[in-house]
Amino acid sequence: MLTPLSDRIIAKGTETEDVTKGGIVLPDTAKEKPQEAEVVAVGPGRLLDNGKVVPMDVKVGDKIIFAKYGGTEVKVDGEDYKILRQDDVLAVLESGTKGGK
């Protein structure tokens, strides 16, 4: 498994629907990459110049929305993950909420 450093977050993307509300089936090439993910690991926080650590605002299990072009995509053991800085996270979804829908 990956262990994030500093203020980095490892997230696993959520699946997008293959059918539009109108019933049109979308091929993989026509789908936008999701900007929604579940946090699977967080680093300890950002280290300031004075030696203090700024704690992370997100925790494992949080559902997040991140910047469209933020982070780095990696594949580990056949699974796709996104490594983001905490600054790339735009919002934490409340439970029972589906972003943008």
Write down the domain tally.
1
So, CATH architecture?
A: Roll
The CATH homologous superfamily is called GroES chaperonin
Strand content: 35-45%
Q: How would you characterize this protein structure?
A:
This protein has one domain (8-16, 32-93): GroES chaperonin (10 Kd Chaperonin, Protein Cpn10, Chain O, Roll). By secondary structure, it is mostly beta strands. The mean pLDDT is 83. A six-stranded antiparallel β-sheet has the order 6-7-1-2-5-8, with no helix packed on it. It has a two-stranded antiparallel ribbon with strand order 3-4. The protein contains no helices and eight strands.
Give the topology.
Elements lengths: L7 E6 L22 E7 L3 E2 L5 E2 L8 E4 L5 E5 L2 E7 L3 E5 L8
Antiparallel strand pairs: 1-2, 1-7, 2-5, 3-4, 5-8, 6-7
Which key terms come to mind for this protein?
6-stranded antiparallel sheet, elongated, 101 residues, 0% helix, 10 Kd Chaperonin, Protein Cpn10, Chain O, 8 strands
